[in-house]
Amino acid sequence: MIAPALVPLPQLVTADGDPGSPLGLPSALRVAVPSEELRGLGTAVADLLAKLHGIEPAVQIGGAGDLTLVRSAGPVDGVESVQGIDPLARSDGDARERYELSVGDRGAVVTACAPEGLFRGATTFAQLLQADAAGGITVPRVRIADGPALAWRGLSLDVVRRFFTVAQVKKVIDLLALYKFNVLHLHLSDSQAWRLRIDAWPRLTDPAHWPAGELTAGEDGLPYYTQDDYREIVAYAAARYVTVVPELDMPGHVLAAVRAYPELQGGKETPHRLLAYLDPEAEAAQRFVREVLAEVAALTPGPYLHIGGDEAFGMPDELYAAFTARALEIARGTGKKVVGWQETARSGALAPADVAQAWIGAGDEFDLAAARERTPAEYHGLLESMAAAFAQAERDVPAAVAAGVPVLASPSSFLYLDRRYAEDSLHPGQNERRTTVGHDSYPVRTCRELFAWRPGELPEIPAGARIAGVEAALWCESVGDFDDLAFLLLPRLAGIAEKAWTPPATEWDDHRARVARHPGWWERLGLDGYYRSAEVFG
Fold first, then answer.
1. pLDDT at position 125
2. Which of 311, 343, 460, 471 is catalytic?
3. CA-CA distance, 426 to 228, in Å (whole number)?
4. In this structure, are strands 99-104 and 107-112 parallel, antiparallel, or unpaired?
5. CA-to-CA distance for 13 and 78, rounded, in angstroms?
6. Could you tell me the mean pLDDT of each successive run of 10 residues in the chain, 538 residues long?
7. 409 phi and psi, to 5 degrees?
8. What does the alpha-carbon distance between residue 388 and residue 384 come to, in Å, rounded to a whole number?
9. How far is it, in rounded angstroms, from Cα 452 to Cα 384?
10. Measured between alpha carbons, how far apart are the two ends of the chain, in Å?
C-alpha cells in the first residue's frame, strides 16, 4: 500500500517514483507558506506535526521548504464535487477544501485555492510521515488529489453532563483537525447545568441552581466557560479550520435555567419535577431568548447558532410550536443562520435557510414498556411524557424535507458515539468499563457494524432530502472523565471521518488496517484512553 495510514482515504493516490525509496526529511522540518498573511496557517500545521511526530518544525515565509504550501488561482480539478451545506456559508465553499499533494526529490508541495485546502493537504502530509530505522523521518513519493464528499463534517460534544476544560476541548479539536472534520458543535446548556457565562443572566452559571454532582471545574476552578474561555476555544478551532457551532438547548432541557430563574416557566405546571420548559407566554422567557442568543451570537464569528429544540417533554404541542417559531425568528434576527434538532419541524416554521438535525435512529426508538420495567415508579410520569413526544418523531424529518430544509444527518443508529462497544478490548481492564461507559438503552454494536453505512443511504433520511452533511454526537451522561471521552470517541470517530470525507465506499478490512496504525498519534494528542478494540487492533 502506498499510503498505509491515511484516514480518511483520499480520492486519488498514486506513486510518484519508487515506492521503496521514500524521501528523507530533517526533524527540524521547514513549513513554507506564501505570505505573512498565512503565518497562522503555517503555525497550525507546525503544531500538528510537532504533536504527532515529536519534531520541531519551523515556519518560513516564502521560498521552498520541506513542506511548501502554494495557493493557486483556481480550485483543484479532477476530484468529485462536494455536496451539502458549507458551515461557513460561503459561495465558493465547494472548492475551498480541495488540494493536491506531491512529494518529489525536493520535498512536499501542497497546492490549493484557499487556506482550508492547504491545511487539509498538510494533515495528509502529516499522516504520511514515518520514522525510519535511523531515527529520522521519511515520506513516500506520492501524488494525491483530494477533496471532501460532504461540506459539513462535525462532532457534537456534550460539555454539560461532563465538563471539559479549555485544554481538553483543544485536544478534541486537534483530533478533529487530524481527521478533516470542520465543525465542533458545542452543547453548552441542558437540565443538569449551564456551561457558558451569560452576562445578562448571571445566575445561569451559579452551581447553586444545578442538580448535585455537576460541579466539575476547569483550570480556573470554574465549572463553566467564561466568555474569554469560549473565545479561546473558537479561535483555536478556527486556526485549524474547524467552525464552532454553539447550542443553547430550548425550550426543553432547561431545568438548570428554570431553577435559576423560575419566571421563565411562567407558572406553568409540568408532569414531573425533573421537567421544565420555557413558556412562550411569559415575557421573561421571550426576553431570555432575545438576550441569550444576542450574547452568544456576538461571541461567535461563525454563521450558525443551534437552538436545540429536542425532547421538550411535558410541554403542550401548541406552546412548543409557538415558542420554536419565535425562537427561530429571534435567532435569525441576530444575523445568524439556525440549526435545530429534528423536532423543530413540528413548529411548521423552519425555512430553507435553516438546518434540521436528524437524530432519532432506526432501531433506537423509545420503548415505553421496557423503560417502565427498568425505571422506578416515581419516574413513570416522566416516561409517559417522553413516549408522547417520541410518538411524533417519524413525521419530523419528512416535514423538514417537504419544507425544503436541508438535513444534517446524526442518526443515533450509526452516529451516536455514546453507544457501548460489543466487541472485547485487548486491554483486560477495559472490558468491565465498557459495561458502564455508554448509554445502556442502545443495543451494543461492534466497530465493524458501526462502519456499515453511507451518508446517502441512511434509512432515517427520506429520498429527495437535501443533505447538509453528517455530524457525530457524544452525550456524556455516562462519562466520568476525559479518558471516558477518549474511550467512546476512538477508534470509531475515524470511521465517521472516512464516511464524511471519502466519496466512494471503502471496505472495513482496508479501513481497519489503516486505523490500526493511529494509536501512537492518539496517545501523543493526549487521548490515550481510547478503546483497544479487538476487532480493530486484534
1. 98
2. 311
3. 41
4. antiparallel
5. 12
6. 88 85 92 98 98 96 97 92 94 89 95 98 97 87 97 98 96 98 98 97 95 66 94 98 98 97 96 94 98 98 98 96 98 98 98 97 86 89 90 95 98 97 96 95 95 95 95 97 98 98 96 98 98 98
7. -85, 115
8. 6
9. 34
10. 20
CA distances from 89 to 151, 192, 364 (A): 10, 32, 32
Compute how many other C-beta atoms are within 10 angstroms of the C-beta atom of residue 531. Answer: 24
SS3 383: helix
Burial 143-175 (b: 16+ CB within 10 A, else e): bbbbbbbbbbbbbbbbbbbbbbbbebbbbbbbb
Q: Which three cell numbers stand for residue 127?
A: 499522516
**What integer pLDDT is reported at residue 199 of this predicted model?**
98
Are 358 and 460 contacting, i.e. CB atoms less than 8 angstroms apart? Answer: yes
- Give whole-number Cα distances, 464 to 397, 407, 458, 528, 535, in Å: 11, 11, 12, 42, 35
Of 59, 26, 57, residue with least CA distance to 42:
59
311 is catalytic: yes
Residue 47 in contact with residue 56, Cβ under 8 Å? no
Q: Three cell numbers at 441?
A: 438503552
Q: What separation in angstroms does the CA of 189 have from each of 192, 200, 236, 430?
A: 8, 16, 21, 30
489 residue type, one letter? L
SS3 106: coil
Rounded distance, CA 415 to CA 470, Å?
Answer: 8
- Quickly tell me which residue has 441569550 as its cell: 292
8 A C-beta contact, residue 459 and residue 362: yes
Strand-pairing partners, residue 183, are 154, 243
Residue indicated by cell numbers 474569554: 228
Which cell goes with 409? Answer: 444527518
Q: What is the pTM of this model?
A: 0.97
Give dist(CA 70, CA 73) in Å, integer.
10
